[in-house]
Amino acid sequence: QVQLAESGGGSVKVGGSLRLSCAGSGGTFSTYTITWFRRTPGKEREFVAASRRFNSNPIHATSVKDRFTMSRDNAKKTVYLQMNNLQPEDTAVYYCAASDSVILSQVRAPDAYRYWGQGTQVTVSS
After folding, report:
1. pLDDT of residue 55
2. Can you name the residues that pair with 51 across neighbouring β-strands?
3. Distances (CA, A) of 44 to 21, 24, 39, 62, 112
């Protein structure tokens, strides 16, 4: 019922910054939990950050919380991921995902999400 499209990825040097966007359409955007995940080939999808319905304070994975900041603009049906001080281990395809029925205890679990964007590549190099 919602469609998601990520953008803003690219190639940056170590220590650089990127701002990812996830634009939604369809559905009642403000009622969906929107979450960022990332995946490197050969690895499981990794939780990055989540914004629960009605723009509650986003939560961030401990691995990124000092460097990444998620934000949400329900009027624009868009969520963002500001990534600062990027490191090589941040290299991944970044996805946004949405659910209208995820509970707090499952918000970090990829399998809890029904709707996914196509992903945007982030590459960090020296």
Report:
1. 60
2. 34
3. 22, 24, 6, 17, 14
